[in-house]
């Protein structure tokens, strides 16, 4: 019964993360982006409260140590090695490695002012990683099992994380590679959380990963 009571909270957090993520990519004015920032703050507060209520002795924002940084760097390296291997395999199999809305997002970014771009990248680098790690790692990996941070729940969190980033309802041949790439990222974030027992570690890895992915986009915007 305790697990059944947690399912509605889980659905609420997942839908909230999906909706706020969509709102963030759609916001095209500073007032709208500031409103999305407020939504992110609300989502972070709500998810942090749910994590504290549904976990035992869970400290949400803990200072990282040398071991944590080593795990982050190691898993980031593994993440990008796997990315290149999966992209190579995807090209060999004829899979599409681009999300359905990637071109639209790039066009959207190109139309934004400097202030709007700064706010948009704050969603990508700061607010998004904090909120998503609280939901997918903090809540999903803790709320439904007494044995904390199991690999099985890490797989579940990665599957949900990947599916919600597809921006489509069904997994098909056209978006299979994109799903696998997101699943790989979600799984390595789960491993970092499991190995460090700190959400701040997976948040940092998530943020750094998004920074690295954003660099080519920033270069494209500057040259464009």
From TrEMBL:
GO molecular-function annotation terms?
metallopeptidase activity
Q: Is Hydrolase a UniProt keyword of this protein?
A: yes
What's in the keyword line of the UniProt record? Hydrolase, Membrane, Metalloprotease, Protease, Transmembrane, Transmembrane helix
* InterPro entries, alphabetized: CAAX_protease, Rce1/LyrA-like_dom
**Its domain of life?**
Bacteria
Tell me which Pfam families the record gives.
Answer: Rce1-like
- The residue ranges of the CAAX prenyl protease 2/Lysostaphin resistance protein A-like domain are 117-212
Where does the chain cross the membrane?
33-51, 72-95, 115-136, 148-166, 172-191, 203-222
Which family is annotated? Belongs to the UPF0177 family.
Protein name as annotated: CPBP family intramembrane metalloprotease
